[in-house]
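User: Fold this; tokens only.

Assistant: Input:
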Amino acid sequence: MGRILFLIGIGGFAGSILRHLTVSACSRLFSSAFPSGTFIVNISGCLAIGIVAELSQRYDWIGEEWRLMLMTGLLGGYTTFSAFSLENLKLLQNSEYLTFAIYSVSSFCFGLLAAFTGMMLVKYLG
């Protein structure tokens, strides 16, 4: 159990740093009320989790420990539902209702589509 927790922790450490770097880069590239950094992080994380989930289901080389490190640790640290929730609350408080609706709906729809796409990429290309 200690080894698994260590691997999850290492993954979470790396994922959190990667999230910070990605959000910072997006903040410099895009300036608008739309929280593009968190959006990009969450959608790319959904794509990655679909890929890892399908790879771990299809191939034996991704064991339980690596799956937990990648999915729970790395991608759990990389994606962020709490930032998504806070940004939505700020949009509502600032009466950015259209941006709120676009961000919420597109995050949900594109997140599902990205996870599905990741799974299908492995299924049909792997």
